[in-house]
Amino acid sequence: MGTKQTSPGVVADNRKAHHDYDIEETYEAGIVLTGSEIKSVRASRVNLRGSYARVYNDEVFLYDAHISPYEQSGTLYNHEPTRPRKLLLHRREISRINGQIRQKGLTLVPLKIYFKGRIAKIELGVARGKKSYDKREDIAKREADRTIERVMKSRRHD
Fold it and tell me: Which domains occur in the chain, in start order?
């Protein structure tokens, strides 16, 4: 089984989020980072697995996203790897997200971190958690699609 490559510009991709959640809507947000954090992000030293976002006092924060400490900066100037980070969104987007996540079963999940020009951005998804039988259905559908593709490919070569 091969590893999936992330698209150019994408620093970190949370592929497990697509497995565990049905993404209903996505938003692009800026991230407030310190100097050592942005250097670690540029070096792709980011892990989004297990991270989540919350609305608190009409602001959105990212929790449990691991940005590794930057090796070249000393311990004095380095950052806490999993500290909460403020996300930058428009006021109306925050209000809309807050209304959506107050519904039963919806949550705010980070999908990927990427650069747009020189600015680090994060893609957030308003998501509904999948049940285990939904995951099994997805796996069965993917396997069936692969089998069909394999048969079609072999018939083209005959």
Answer: 10-130 (2.40.280.10)
